[in-house]
Amino acid sequence: MDNPCVKRFRCDLCLCTYNHRYILVNDSYRVRSAWPKMRQMRSKRNIGGSKPITFRIKSFGAFTSVGAMSGPPLKQWINELGLQQVDDPGIDKPVYRKPFDGRIALSAELENLISISLREARDKRKLPRSKLAPLLGITKQVYGRYENGVSRLTVSRLIHLCEVLDATPEEIIAPAAPYLWGETETKAVLLLATIVKLRTFDEEILQDIFSLLSRIDETGSDSGDRAMKVASTSATADDRE
Q1: Which fold has domain 77-198?
Q2: Where are the domains of the chain?
Q3: Mean pLDDT, range 171-197, rounded to an integer
Q4: Are 21 and 3 a contacting pair, CB within 8 Å?
Q5: d(CA 230, CA 160)
């Protein structure tokens, strides 16, 4: 009969040590229950053979628990993301979208903006439709339907276009949905400009930049921890008084 026991081991995902409940079957341990809920932590990864770099991982619940995977209440999720219900003529039922700069671009407008981005990207490279279409395995007429907004691009076709145009996702998508890169126009423009600049650096420089950002993140986190300790100490002192 299986004997339940608790065994401590090193977790491959978070590189920490947790109690996991196992059952002993034929002298080997097998997982019995779900992983315990993990607190917010940092895990170390190795990139390109360099020293381990710190990443922050959000808290998450048990993988195998249906209740844990249900997530927050829908209304709470909508409020936290700032979504608004809209009626989109291109969609049968009401949908929830995130406004940007006080307005929401409906699906038809998004498709039109992406079509414009696609045409501008092709013109920038001085590549006629007759040469681009064969790279996609379609005719010039079919490709023209994408630039004219008649046909909608699938994600896989968009990826293929980025490949044959040597374009970045930001170049095609950002003009239509800048809010995916920032809550405000200023932040979106700044982040997009930063991404463009980062793409020009080689791997060594990117490694240095990433290490710098990691140290900044650690400094900010340490400052936050110290502030919490000070606040906790002050609260305890007030209670004693």
Answers
A1: 434 Repressor (Amino-terminal Domain) (1.10.260)
A2: 13-68, 77-198
A3: 94
A4: no
A5: 54
